[in-house]
Amino acid sequence: MPLTKRATAILFTLLLAGCAALPSGNTELTGVGYEVRASDLQKVHRMNRMLVSDQVMLDYLNGILARLETALDEPCHCIAVVDTFGGYEAYTLSPHTIVVTAGVMAQAESEDEIAGLLAHELSHVIHDDTTKGHFQQAAITAARVGGIAAGNAYSVVLGDAARETANGLIYHRWNREHEIQADAFAVTLLASAGYSLDGLKMAIRRVAQYSESALASRGDDAPDCITDAGNNRYNVNFTGCAARMTGSRDSVYEPLDSRLEMLQENIWALAPEKRRRRIQNVVPRFASVDYLYGLNRLVSNDEAELRAGLAAVEAQAIPTVLEKNAYVYNQLSLAHMMLNDLETAQRYFLYTLESDYRTTFNYQRLLHYANQQRDPQLVSHMITLMHQDIGLSDEMLPIEYYLAKRHDLKLMEMQAFARCGLALARDMELAQRCSDFGKAADANRNISW
């Protein structure tokens, strides 16, 4: 879909404004007084999610984290943030950043439940699970999923590529030892901090319910990542790439019954007054979370249901703290695209150009537009801007290499070629895709993504 003249004007305004690259250390999350590691922020964007810049909510969440830290020997030097996803998930991007989803904040019935999730993730931070074993693979997956969460414009609203990413990132061959250790650690920490263990039990049940739903969508075989469309054209199937690169089709997760059984054993080792505490604190309501959770109405493969869900979403005003959140406009744009209302889809997409950050999905479309314009300068600017927003994405690397070669951007071509070469040692499939895309550029073939 070609961008309008207004889109081009906004785009060049952004480019000429400089859009300084994110620093390698901490960077202030726009709109709030919290700093997030730049690399962690980029990982979230590569997952086609955004962090929620809601000061009140982040104060509440990090207040829980601070209470838990009082029971630790030393502070974790980490923060808790909320991403825009509507499913019930919590994960640790690095020793510095714990993430819970908007779906958690919307569904949790008590502060104890949220504390249970944070305590579990704190174990991964304290025991450095993000840099060793199978948890390291999950963190690497987070950095590699690229445009997978966005998928192509016709599958994301159905949830295909997003489910593959969830399967691969959140449930990708977890190290059983680390998970058991994290549950045991959470029991002790919650008891010491004065929280009820019933909240942890509820959190584990909800995670199990959501993970079963997510994993039930997987198939036995991963679809092809790249297909020959004939007539000198190739298509990239991001859902297929997700399945192959994250291993989502063979993901595993600890069964609920055995997990609760082991959890109960740890709880019974506590003093009676600690294990008998009851849940007390209700989670406050946040307009940002309610709105983001409501976007789940847009996940449907039934046209009538999707239209009704979209009407319900659009009847609500976008909360102020989400007015510059590209995730919201991406979802609305995709919903209208699914319903073949391309004009409205385009209008929503233009809002993302004025957002604080952009995701891989945005750069998939913007690079496609730049390629269609056959404008080397625009292609170069877009690749540079993409690196600032989402970092160096493996999934976008073959496309970068293809565009740099096709538009004779020598320096970018050399940089992409070097990264492709490094992939030989760790990811033969990625290296092969680089080779295929390079040959396509040499032959001036059209690649569709």
Automatic annotation (TrEMBL):
InterPro entries: Mito/Outer_Membr_Metalloprot, Peptidase_M48. Pfam families: Peptidase_M48 (PF01435). Residues 1-23 form the signal peptide. The keyword Metal-binding applies. Keywords: Hydrolase, Metal-binding, Metalloprotease, Protease, Signal, Zinc. PANTHER family: METALLOENDOPEPTIDASE OMA1, METALLOENDOPEPTIDASE OMA1, MITOCHONDRIAL. This is M48 family metalloprotease. One of its GO terms (molecular function) is metallopeptidase activity. Its cofactor is Zn(2+). It comes from the Bacteria. The keyword Glycosyltransferase does not apply. Gene3D superfamilies: Metalloproteases ('zincins'), catalytic domain. Residues 80-200 form the Peptidase M48 domain.
